[in-house]
Amino acid sequence: LATTGLIAGDIGVVFAALILGVAINPSLISQLFSYAILCFAFCIRNRIICINDGLLYVA
């Protein structure tokens, strides 16, 4: 459960970086948004793997 909490924090960091990047350079919004969605997908993937591994060790 501790790892899923850290991953949820990572998602917040990804979107905070997106907001900061768009504030600094608004012309890169489409590229930064695609990077943010890709990082979000990787965070969700890691969360699923951590939960799955945790359930395997418990059972």
From TrEMBL:
<protein>
    <submittedName>
        <fullName>ATP synthase subunit 9</fullName>
    </submittedName>
</protein>
<keyword id="KW-0496">Mitochondrion</keyword>
<comment type="similarity">
    <text>Belongs to the ATPase C chain family.</text>
</comment>
<dbReference type="InterPro" id="IPR035921">
    <property type="entry name" value="F/V-ATP_Csub_sf"/>
</dbReference>
<dbReference type="InterPro" id="IPR038662">
    <property type="entry name" value="ATP_synth_F0_csu_sf"/>
</dbReference>
